[in-house]
Amino acid sequence: MPDAPQSWIGATPEDIATIEANAGRPLPPFYLWFLTRMGRHMGALDYVTLDFSVERILLCYREELEEPDPRYLLIGYQSDPIVPMHLWYDLDRPSRGDALVVSRAIGDDLVQHDFETLREMLAYKLMLNYRLPVLRARCRGEISTDGSDVRARLERAIDGLRFEQPVPTGPCCGLFDRPDAALVCRSSPDGGDDDVLFFSLGADSPGALRRILGVITRKTGLHVEIDNT
């Protein structure tokens, strides 16, 4: 989405200073970049029920968070009352100039690990919601192995398929693009399923889709299971 930055509205230095005061420590460098550029409005990148704006975050700190846990910094407010799992940074888990992103209800000890970094989460959702839907043939499923480190084995096949990585990622997320196809994949950052990647693949034709999956299975010995639901 090359025109997306034109609709962004950044947070003020005062907003950012208040967020950092709530965190009680320096903010991750990527979050500073994010707030400076789209801390008040994400434009076309907005989520339907998840509000990343500093206005909503600071309101929650004033009205709902009586005793904030210093480990977690609220970064996305979930307005869906059925599943009010808000988005937080785990500030004790910094990673590549960013931090682990988790889902957690206010006052709940249950924490779900989502992405190793906010940067990866935003880029993953962007490709999933805007890049893949324009491709004519699509599928999704699981890539697995009897061993371990499925992501490293997948990259061996990706190198031969001439995909580029628009955003550098860690071992739990993959973003791959080329003119006629795109692939996104992810696994849990908690280390529980390092032998499984959940993927979505799109291509200009069903034939291209089959060829890509064929190369992945032949070159790596990985198992590919398509979700037909």
Give the tags.
229 residues; alpha+beta; 5-stranded antiparallel β-sheet; elongated
Describe the 3D structure.
The chain is an alpha+beta fold and 229 residues long. The chain contains 6 helices and 10 strands. The protein has helices spanning 13-23, 29-38, 54-63, 118-131, 150-160, 206-220, and strands at residues 50-51, 72-78, 86-95, 98-104, 112-115, 137-144, 173-178, 181-186, 196-203, 223-226. A 5-stranded antiparallel β-sheet has the order 1-2-3-4-5. Strands 7-8-9-6-10 form a 5-stranded antiparallel β-sheet, sandwiched between helices. Strand 2 (72-78) and strand 3 (86-95) form a beta hairpin. Helix 1 crosses helix 3 and helix 5 packs across helix 6 (206-220). The chain is elongated, with a radius of gyration of 19 Å.
Structural class: alpha+beta
**Over the alpha carbons, how many angstroms does the gyration radius reach?**
19 Å
Enumerate the strands of the largest sheet in spatial order, edge to edge or round the barrel.
1-2-3-4-5
Give me the number of helical elements: 6
Poorly predicted spans: none
Strand content: 25-35%
Overall 3D form: elongated
Q: State the assembly state of the protein chains.
A: single chain
E-strand count = 10
Rounded mean pLDDT score? 91
**Distance, first to last CA:** 29 Å
